[in-house]
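REQUEST FORM: STRUCTURE PREDICTION
Request ID: SP-0412
Submitted by: Lab K.M.
Chain count: 1
Length (residues): 108
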Amino acid sequence: MMEENFFEKVYAVARQIPYGRVTSYGAIAKSIGMAKSARMVGWAMTSCKNDDSVPAHRVVNRIGLLTGKHHFAGSNLMKQLLENEGLTILNDRVQNFQDVFWNPEEHK
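STATUS: Completed
RESULT:
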C-alpha cells in the first residue's frame, strides 16, 4: 500500500530528528523524494501520535509554527515537549528556528 509505505518513510526520517532540534513537514517530504507532499507528512504525523518512537512534536511548519499542536493531548503538550528539550516557544513559534532546524537532506 502506497500510503503505508509513504508513512513509514516519513517515520524513519522523523525518528532521526535529534533531541532539541526541529524539522519541517516540507523538509521531510523533500528528503523522501516527495517534495510536494508536505501536507501528507502532516497527516502521517497525526496518524502516529500514539507511537512514542516517532517524535512528531519535533515537526513544525516551514517558519517554525506549531501547526500540529491541536493533534496532541492538551493544547500545550507539543509546546511543553519542545520546551523540555530546551527550545524556546513564543506565540506557538519556535524561536531561533534557523539555529535549531535539522535538515534531513544533510543527514542521508
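NOTES: The chain has five helices and four strands.
Reviewed by: T.R.
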